[in-house]
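In this supplementary section we document a worked example of the pipeline. Step one takes a protein sequence of length 161 as its only input; no multiple sequence alignment statistics are reported here. Step two produces a three-dimensional model, which step three serialises into structure tokens for compact storage. The input and output of this example are shown verbatim.
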Amino acid sequence: MKKLTYLVLPLAMMFTLSSCDWFNSSILGKPSKSEQELARLEQARKDSLDMAAANLELKEQAEESAASEVIVNVVSPLTGDRYHVIIGCFKVMENADNMMALLEENDYTPQKVYFQNDYTCVSAASSDNVNEMYQVMSKMLQADFCPLDIWIYDMTTELHR
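The serialised model returned by step three reads:
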């Protein structure tokens, strides 16, 4: 019986000590619970820094694209008039240029209005007087080159860039 006790007692101690942090780190060579927690915190810190760097890169890209949009507005500034007779909106810049050339041939002073949705609208006339713009629009509808879907844009809506 004594032999059995000598055999069972170390086995029982080994099973009870196997959950012990000292036993796992010293005898088995596993990292302790505090070391595991430090490694987890370090990984979380690295992930957070990576995410912050990615956000910073996205912010810089957005600022660069915003700077290029400002350059577009500087190249073609709008008059200070409130109302514009819009004769067409174009996604392709070449089409907007063609419409501007057509308006210039017909003695209008066209302007480009750049909208936030990346469309370029061509303004045939502008003024602070909305009644004057309705008269211009009525006159334009009589012309052969004018589409039927022209409209008046109020700059106070701030849909443009």
